[in-house]
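@here heads up, posting the sequence + SMILES for the zinc ion run so it's all in one place. Ping me if the SMILES looks off, I pulled it from an old spreadsheet.
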Amino acid sequence: MGSAGEALGRLREGNLRFASHIRASDAVLRPTRPADLAAEQRPFAIVLGCSDSRVPAEIVFDQGLGDLFVIRVAGNIVAPSQVGSVEFAAARYGTRLVMVLGHSRCGAIVATLEELRRPTENQSRNLRAIVDRIRPSVEGLLATGVKEDGATLVEQAVRANIRASADHLRHGSQLLEQLIQDEGLLVVGAEYSLETGIVEFFDGVPGSA
Ligand SMILES: [Zn+2]
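bot reply: prediction finished. Complex structure tokens:
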């Protein structure tokens, strides 16, 4: 299993292929048939992404069967089952890169901002569980000048939520903390642009702010 840095490089290259409409040739780079992976998997990255139909991790990073261990949930929130899924993959497969992948114009973020401005009654308890996970990282923005600018507000809220999820994974699990400290596990935050198809790695990447 490669290092977190190598995994990051593969994801960057794959996204570049995707964004430039060049897909890896199935014959050359994807010799894997389902049966070849039946006995074991060795995913090189763990991705916690949003369920949005426009942001499937395997496609936007141009990866194939067995490459990514993907957890998807609306708003790429972190609840115990998401932490558990990351712990499972990191411990069992030795995967050393964890990425939280949010995206521009995320519907879960927009819904949370709407809910903070105009609370609805009788909201589904289950939906509320998602909004409640996003709320703490974005409600502070409503106390700033940025709340007057709808588009900027959503942009900043999307990033704040990605940072909060990445932070939760870094500090909300003893197992992951230990892997970070001893085994070079890296947790990064990234945002996919629905407009350009490009993923920007903006949180937790070594050597960048
Ligand atoms: Zn979303």
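MO: The mean pLDDT is 93.
MO: One more: The helical segments are 4-19, 26-29, 57-60, 80-93, 107-117, 125-138, 150-171, 174-183.
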